[in-house]
Amino acid sequence: MLEMTDFAGASQALKASLALETSPVALRFIHAKDDIPAGIEKLDKTVRHCMMVTMARRDGKVFYTTDENHECFGGAWALGLRELSQSLKTGDFYFKLGKFASPPACRRTISSVPHIESGFTHAILYAPLEKTPFVPHVILIVAPPRVMLKLAQAMLYRLGGRIKSGFSGIQSICADITAQTYLSGKPNFSLGCDGSRKFSGIKDDEMVMGFPAEMLSEVVEAVQIVTAAPGSKK
C-alpha cells in the first residue's frame, strides 16, 4: 500500500527527466464526508473534471469536489458521483453531437466506457503531485507524444511486454485515465477528447495518461533510467 512519500521529489524527478511543462496530478476518491482531510478546501465553482485536473497541473491548486461541482454529466457518472443520465443511456447525447452514426452505436460505446459504480464516490481530491497532502489513488500526466513514449518505456522497463490502452475518443480524462486506471490497477494512455481539449486547455499536440499511485516510486526510477539510456533520443 502506498504511504505518504516524497511527492515533491517524485514530481521534480518526473518534471526534470520528461521536461514536463505542467505538474503530474494526484487524485484520490473519498467515499464519505467525514473522510475528507482537514485543511483541504472545496472548489467554489462548477466545472468539468478535465478542467479540475488542469487547475491542479497548471495552476497548482489543491482542493476537493463533490457531485455539485461537476458540470459534465458523463464525467460525474464515470467517476462514481452520480447515475448515468437518460440521454447517455439511450445514446441520444453523443448521437446529437454527431459523434456516432446512430444512437445504438453510441449506446454500444457507452456500455463499454470504464466507470466507477454510481454512489461509490462522495468526493475527489485533486493536487499537483509536488503539493499532495494525501495518499493518492491515481497519478495523471498531460504531455506531448514524445513524453508518452518515455512513459510507455518506463512502464515496461522492469517486466517488459506491451502497452494495451483502451479509449474511444470520448470521456478521456474522466473515464479512460481516471476511472479505468483506478479500476484496473494498470496504466492507460488516451488521445484526449473534444471536451477535454475544448474546455480544459489540453493542446492539440498533447496526450493524457494515468497510472496507479502504487507504481509511483517504480515509475520515477524507470523514467530516469530510460530517458538517460544510450538509445534514447535526446
Which features does this protein show?
single chain, about 230 residues, alpha+beta, 6-stranded antiparallel beta sheet, 10 helices, 6 strands, about 40% helix, globular
Walkthrough of the structure:
With 234 residues, the chain is an alpha+beta fold. It has one domain (7-228). Helix content is 39%, strand content 13%. The protein has ten helices and six strands. It has helices spanning 7-18, 49-57, 73-78, 86-90, 92-96, 103-112, 145-156, 172-184, 194-199, 216-228, and strands at residues 25-30, 63-65, 123-128, 138-143, 188-190, 207-212. Strands 2-3-1-4-6-5 form a six-stranded antiparallel β-sheet. The longest helix has 13 residues, at 172-184. The model has no long low-confidence stretch (mean pLDDT 93).
Please tell me the overall pLDDT: 93
Number of strands: 6
Largest pleated sheet:
6 strands, antiparallel
- List the strand order in the largest sheet: 2-3-1-4-6-5
Helix content: 25-40%
Number of domains: 1
Enumerate how many helices there are, as a single number: 10
Q: Kindly name the structural category.
A: alpha+beta
**What fraction strand?**
5-15%
Shape: globular
